[in-house]
UniProtKB/TrEMBL annotation:
This is Tryptophan halogenase. It comes from the Bacteria. 7-chloro-L-tryptophan binds at K83. InterPro entries: FAD/NAD-bd_sf, Flavin-dep_Halogenase_NPB, Flavin_halogenase, Trp_halogen. It comes from Caulobacter henricii.
Length: 509
């Protein structure tokens, strides 16, 4: 058995830096440490990183922790702030707001799911809102924050959180982490790819003539998709029929007040606008559909609505929503924008990078590249992409807005069959289809469904086993207690200043 790894991968080449490249490099350096696997990353200072993925979801913190990175140090050095939820404005109708919180909503009543008990209460005329029982929402709405681990014996312990980050600072942080663990960084632009007769990539050639060979290549070259697209010509599955936005205009602004602990996602006439507050600045963007709005009009709209002096931008990012039919083909694995793109409405871009590398480590091949490993990798990643696609399409196709051509046209969009089936099941009695290792759990679907006005026709009959007086008393008591516990907390800005103030920020010229 001692020679079992003679056929093992000895050299991993990552083509491209940015968030995708350095997340992959950091994970590879951590898990391949002292195994004899060399990791080399090729990137060029000439090619700018898009740096839009500045809002994360809770699994991103699992990544940081799994690498042994100190969370406080990471927050301080990446100018991060906390994120408890996404605040959706004007999505169902103009003037309406709802939250998609992280963590739990309420807790079981007896043996029964809180949401089903709440549905029964609503059927009996109870005046509460679902989010009255979501600790992350109540904190977010009051601009308060405390990590749930510091509130173990209170209702606040059910909350969860993610981070708002500076994508370029995160890439730099993870670069330092990876290089300290042996990753070799090579500066240069890849201009040519040399393949073997069987279609596997043998080496890449850079503009200056340098050649880099490897056993396994990770394509993190962004929308350029040098390996998976230009070399292997892997088919792209276009989802723009259900996700019509195809452009983003982005700008960075000064902070004019303390950062709020949520991402703003405000629906606009032809898409939606985000605001992501960090400790040193805010990120802003307008994701829109060029069929309904020109780039000049989109930029003017964004600049008219943002707060604070513009520090950078506006810059435009064209995109096509979808994914490669296969992300793992031959000895190439596409991770990040090279493999696919789904608009950042639910902050999933960095998560898909982490998942892509996590699954690669799980189904790691040897030099024979057993096709069964690639097939399972592609199946699992396709499930993730499709789950995210469906969750984001949900926000659009359940709108009641008909005030602009964009929103009127969305009324006629036919959702993917998988989403139609989810909606039918949910509308019947509030049930959710469980997937394998789903990213969005029941509270996420319930929050967006309720926020968009999709409520089940009935609650599950088994809930009738609980005396209604017990349900009513639980709701009547827990909402005021939660509200009072939140009122006693420090503000988000105060918590940041006391526990993880950002390192002094040197603004680049």
């Amino acid at each position: 058995m001692q020679d079992a790894n003679q056929n093992g991968i000895r050299k991993v080449v990552i083509v491209g830096g940015g968030s995708a490249g350095w997340i992959c490099a950091a994970m590879a350096s951590h898990y391949f440490h002292k195994t004899g696997v060399a990791v080399e990353l090729i990137e060029s200072e000439e090619i700018g990183t898009i740096g839009v993925g500045e809002s994360t979801i809770p699994p991103f913190l699992q990544l940081i922790r799994s690498l042994g990175i100190d969370e406080q140090d990471f927050i301080q050095k990446t100018q991060a702030s906390f994120k408890l939820a996404i605040r959706f404005e004007n999505w169902r109708n103009k003037g309406e707001t709802y939250y998609h919180p992280f963590g739990q909503i309420g807790g079981p009543i007896g043996r029964h799911e809180f949401y089903q008990c709440w549905l029964r209460a609503k059927a009996n005329g109870h005046p509460s809102n679902l989010q009255d029982f979501a600790p992350a929402t109540v904190m977010a709405d009051q601009w308060k924050f405390i990590p749930p681990v510091r509130a173990q014996k209170s209702l606040l312990s059910g909350a969860n959180y993610a981070l708002h980050i500076d994508a370029k600072l995160v890439a730099q942080y993870l670069r330092d982490f990876a290089e300290a663990r042996g990753v070799k960084r090579t500066e240069g632009i890849v201009t040519d790819v040399v393949s073997r007769p069987d279609g596997f990539v043998e080496r890449v050639i850079m503009k200056n003539g340098t050649e880099v060979s490897g056993d396994l290549f990770i394509d993190c070259s962004g929308f350029r998709a040098l390996l998976i697209g230009k070399t292997l010509d892997e088919e792209y599955r276009d989802w723009s029929d259900v996700l019509m936005c195809d452009r983003a205009v982005v700008a960075q602004t000064e902070n004019v007040k303390d950062p709020h602990p949520y991402t703003v996602a405000q629906a606009q006439d032809a898409g939606w606008r985000w605001r992501i507050p960090l400790q040193h600045r805010a990120g802003n963007g307008y994701v829109f559909c060029s069929k309904y709005l020109s780039e000049d009009e989109a930029a003017a709209t964004l600049l008219s609505q943002i707060e604070g002096e513009v520090l950078l931008g506006p810059n435009f990012i064209p995109f096509k929503t979808g994914m490669r039919k296969r992300l793992f083909r031959n000895n190439v694995v596409a991770i990040g924008l090279a493999g696919g793109f789904i608009e950042p409405l639910e902050s999933t871009a960095l998560h898909l990078i982490y998942r892509g590398m996590d699954f690669l480590l799980r189904y790691f091949p040897d030099k024979d590249f057993d096709p069964g490993l690639a097939a399972e990798y592609n199946r699992r990643m396709t499930m993730d992409y499709e789950e995210i696609r469906d969750f984001i399409v949900l926000h659009y196709v359940t709108t009641q807005r008909d005030d602009t051509p964009f929103w009127r046209d969305y009324q006629a969009v036919v959702p993917p069959e998988s989403l139609r089936e989810r909606l039918e099941l949910f509308r019947a009695s509030g049930l959710l289809r469980d997937g394998v290792d789903d990213m969005f759990r029941a509270p996420s679907w319930q929050s967006v469904m309720e926020g968009m006005g999709v409520r089940p026709r009935r609650y599950q009959q088994l809930v009738d086993a609980v005396p209604y007086a017990v349900i009513q008393q639980t709701l009547d008591q827990s909402a005021p207690i939660l509200k009072a516990q939140v009122a006693a907390l420090p503000s988000h800005g105060e918590f940041l200043a006391e526990h993880c103030p950002a390192a002094p920020f040197q603004r680049s010229a």
